[in-house]
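#struct-queue
[09:14] JT: dropping the first one here, sequence first, then the structure tokens:
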Amino acid sequence: MKVSLPYGKSSITVRIPDYCDVSVIRKPPMPLVASPIDEVRKSLNQPVGCSPLSSVAKSSTTACILICDITRPVPNSTLLGPLVECLMDSGIEAANILILVATGLHRPNEGEELEYLIGDPKILNTIPIKNHHARNNYEHVDLGFTSTGTPVLIDRRFVEADLKIVTGLVEPHFMAGYSGGRKVLAPGIAHADTIRTLHSSRILEDPNCRSCNTTDNPLHREQLEIVDMVRKHSGSNIYALNTVIDEERKIAFVNFGEIVKSHQKAMDFADRYCTVSVDRKFETVVTSAAGYPLDQTYYQAVKGMVTPLEILQENGSLVFAAQCKEGLGSDEFRRSQRNLLEEGPEAFLRRVARKTTADVDEWETHMQVMAQRDFHISLYTDELNKEDRELTGLNLPHSMEEAIHAAVSRSESKNVAVIPEGPYVVPKIAQLVFVGDS
């Protein structure tokens, strides 16, 4: 059997041995929006939990719009035009509208990359666009601490704007449950100290900190509290323009409104398609890191390693593909991977458990170790150099076919699950209900 997996900006074809019993797991078809730009305009006029944007904007002189950075395939070319148009029609001058790229601790998006991210020449030539810099202390407002002690410092350009709008893609996230909404605010435009605390072992080791789950999720809870702190400090509401896309990255859902209520509705919609029930676990799972832009660094590709683990048998094998054209990731992540190899998994986990804040990008190594505790992991990539290949700490086969054959041989089971879309599809073991005698 042949299957196609996203890989970079294209795909690779993988042949699964004919003797295998293959189950392909993907989202059910989504009902697509007929006219995305019209749907965005409609959402601005029919919001969730607030007045229409045109009414809200009339009392504002300045506005700050948050957008996700290049690591997320957000359809900004569709979202930003109607949004900015509405703000300007409501009396806010173009010079007083700021688009702020929520980079978190990632690198800034500039030049051709920024042009690709915005996707609209008119916006690029009309509206000021800046990157968030998490390490610049003076660019943040200190809002104090959350109830659990997380220091909250948020980009002052957003906090001090009259009108605050978050935009983003709502999709599974392996820590926060779902991306978008409150996550674009924190860690998106948070200070490094806030981000490092939100990614500490205390939070990551909580079993509720996982894909498609916000119930008792400590990261989600912290993010909601930070939203409330920003709101109280500034004395103004925060709004969100949310979207959900299908497997071909076409828009299936758009809404606008008060950040928490509108984001919850977007998560509810996404959950109906992104979580897929299966009736058993598998000894071998084949997947991807979802292609561009998520698989451009190994740091981001780790998400493809973690998401499918619920349906993988203990000591089973995960084989995933990620191009990693930009290499391993940041220097800090490279250092963290080197620490893992030098210390070993158990010593690494003991060390990070003693800290209240994680080192920068150490959390991705932490998630890798959690995946490797009970499973055999193989990564196919043809872009990493020799040093970076070694720093992954994974089995790196010459081909997907080689890794799949080894995995099936090791388990002596012919059952193989294939999840083409990687971290954007979250398989769940169906809960069986037994009816007893009355």
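[09:21] JT: and here's the second one, same format:
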Amino acid sequence: MKMKTILLAGALSVTANFAAAHCHNAVPVKTISNAFPAYEIMTAAMQACGNVESELDKDHRLKIVDAFSANPSLYSMTSLTNSTSVPMIDADLLRPLDDLIAAHGGSLNENQFIRIDGKIMAIAAFANTQHLMYREDILSDLGIAVPATWDEYIAAAEKIQAAAVVDYPIGHYTKDGWNLAFVFVNHYLGEGGAFFNDDWTPSINNEKGLAVLERMAKLGTLMDPEYLVSDTTFVTKQMQQGKIAMANLWASRAGAVNDPAESSVSGKVVMAAGLRGSERIASTIWWDGWAVAKNISDEEAEAAFKLIVASMSEEIIKENNDDAIWLAPGFVPGDAAQGAFATAGGDAVAYPMNKYIGSMHGALGSGLAAFMTGDKDAATTLADIEAAYVSDATEKGLL
């Protein structure tokens, strides 16, 4: 067994011991969630309660609508975010939690309750956003000021590239598909762009959209040439291995890049606010949490909810304080949280939470790679993406 695995197992065993003291579950429960440290911690705590089978999958969002449409649902509960909650709610696949909160949710904070049309449909476990992570030693040695805007970031990256002190000056989650589309979404919001007209027709083939593509192309010259396979895990490892000097990365990875158990640059990476576009911070505020399936028995739903509460006990939050920006009681912001707090305290906005953004995000994910590889020019790319959005939204009955 590798040392990293041993250390992770040890950390999760501590979490499990805390959880075991808080719960005993006699009802079989099955969970599916995203795969990163915060969910590893929570699912380990649930499993310690007994009779829990957990599936952690970074592509879980592609499975949950079909899985929860089954009757009974193939899972008792799932992790959700701003965006992944929309198709689940539209398809009426989630159970309102108000009654279960009244019975078992006394230890939760009010700001954890995600309300849709007056009903609590999910429990937010932690907040997440994207912000700047940088090697303080490299910027200091090269006399580079900490960038605050994307233009300053690119200028700093060019100086780092010229100095040849790392393999690549920056890393970014630009994997073809959802990630690449998300980069566009953040930058477009940072330029003050609106994705839709009043009638929900698309509005990205404009000056702001063209400016975003120009910037994305420039960023591509400063990264590993294989950037179209670069997801968040890829960038995290690049930073841990000392291959890059800066990254605009999810706050949920801030703890990992300075973890001495797995990072060769531990203690050298500093967190700062998300980088600004011309109008606002080009990052989005997210919540991550849990929801319970509608198509399961009341007994299973109650067991699932009690496990959610147990996985966020104050002891567990304190033991794993720096692994997420926790919303449950017990969290004290540390160094790893400073970038997220600076971003959330600025003018960053929440990722759009409406039924139309799914079609737009999908069209962006399918169309942007052709521009990044030079197969299409910027204007043609945006026109084709708008056409793809209209086609998909029309097929879904949205237009």
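[09:30] RK: nice, looked through the second one.
[09:31] RK: The chain has 16 helices and twelve strands.
[09:31] JT: good to know. Residues 1-16 have pLDDT under 50 and may be disordered.
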